[in-house]
Amino acid sequence: MPIAVKTFPALSEAASALAGDRSARFLAGGTLVMRALNEGDVSISTVVRSTDRAFAEIRPAGARIVLGAGVTMSQILANRELAFLHPVARAVGGPAVRGAATVGGNLFAPAPYGDMAAALLALDATVQLQGGYGGREMLLEEFLGNRDRQTGVIVASVAIARPAGPDAFRFRKVSRVKPKGHLGPVDRAHLPLSGGRIAGRASPTGDGADSGPGQGGGAGAGRARPSTRPASPRRSPSRPRARRPRTMRSPAPGTAARCCPCI
Ligand SMILES: Cc1cc2nc3c(=O)[nH]c(=O)nc-3n(C[C@H](O)[C@H](O)[C@H](O)COP(=O)(O)OP(=O)(O)OC[C@H]3O[C@@H](n4cnc5c(N)ncnc54)[C@H](O)[C@@H]3O)c2cc1C
User: Fold this and answer.
1) Smallest CA separation from ligand 1 atom 53, residue
2) If you average pLDDT over every residue of the chain, what do you get?
3) Residue 222 pLDDT
4) Minimal-distance CA residue to ligand 1 atom 28
5) pLDDT of 185-235, one tens digit each?
6) Residue nearest ligand 1's atom 4 by CA
7) Which residue has the higher pLDDT, 41 or 260?
């Protein structure tokens, strides 16, 4: 089926085009949308994108920093002012994914994804929304609570306050499988609790470096609580490890399927 690609210089025009077409999908970095298209998602017949410069800009706004929703994880990693977000951006996929995946797109990524969304939530972010009718601002928390009902709306930007000091905000990705880097069992079981805000993200399936899109339909982000569970006892050698079957899962609406856990 042919797919129409519509590009608009202004985000407001893109939002109008989205609002008027139920089969249109906004395209940001495309890490999930292009995958869905390549896998034959017939619910999408039009892809809407925007070349609005503000969409990919990082700019200070008084005590806050505004991240255009089209800012990529790599852009964050290249920006010293955003050092507090570097561990978060680094936790998202591999280099190729980070070069394309956007802040806005991460707000829509199904669980267990959403590392950036979880961090922004802990930073009390607000989102600027652009609809066909105009724009409005709301708390990220409120936005995520109604995310699935926000059709025809584009997230234009996300605003956060700079954390007060180096220890005021920390991020730790918690995973059941060994993620990139080297979290030991003790690290995995305990998040540090030494004041400040902690954005953590527990992954039920093991998100690691490049796991594929998750189980579908998840909330995407949440304020993480430090785990108080003790490290799990060593597995007895006589007990076989339970394995997840490597089967193709039915994709949740609007998400791509996962055909094996290694992609
Ligand atoms: C191999 C792989 C590994 C990954 N690993 C991780 C990981 O470890 N941690 C993690 O958190 N995430 C991970 N991800 C998910 C990744 O973060 C998301 O794919 C990415 O953030 C989505 O951004 P995008 O710009 O590519 O979105 P797109 O694919 O362009 O869009 C995704 C969805 O969001 C909507 N959307 C995008 N931007 C906006 C906007 N501004 N306004 C309204 N709607 C919008 C689109 O319409 C679409 O429905 C991984 C993805 C892949 C493919």
Assistant:
1) 31
2) 78
3) 36
4) 30
5) 444 443 433 345 566 655 443 343 444 443 333 333 334 444 445 555 555
6) 93
7) 41
The atom of ligand 1 lying closest to the CA of 207 is 8
Residue whose C-alpha is closest to residue 92's, from 75, 81, 259:
75
Cβ-Cβ contacts under 8 Å for 73 (sequence gap 6 or more): 89, 90, 92, 93, 97, 98, 99, 101, 102, 103, 116
- Rounded to the nearest whole angstrom, what is the distance from the C-alpha of residue 9 to the centroid of ligand 1? 22
Residue 121 and residue 199 in contact, taking contact as beta carbons nearer than 8 Å: yes
Question: Cα(261)–Cα(263) distance, rounded to whole angstroms?
Answer: 6
* Digit-coded pLDDT (tens) for 160-169: 999 988 889 9
Pocket of ligand 1 (CB under 6 A): 25-33, 69, 91-93, 97, 100-102, 104-106, 108-109, 113-116, 154-155, 207, 210, 254
The Cβ-side half-sphere exposure at 229, using a 13 Å CA radius, reads: 11
Predicted TM-score (pTM) of the model is 0.76
- 194 CA to centre of ligand 1 in angstroms: 31
Smallest CA separation from ligand 1 atom 34, residue: 105
In sequence order, the 6+-apart residues with CB closer than 8 A to the CB of 135 are 12, 128, 129, 156
CA-to-CA dists, residue 211 to 28, 111, 204, 206, angstroms: 20, 11, 12, 8
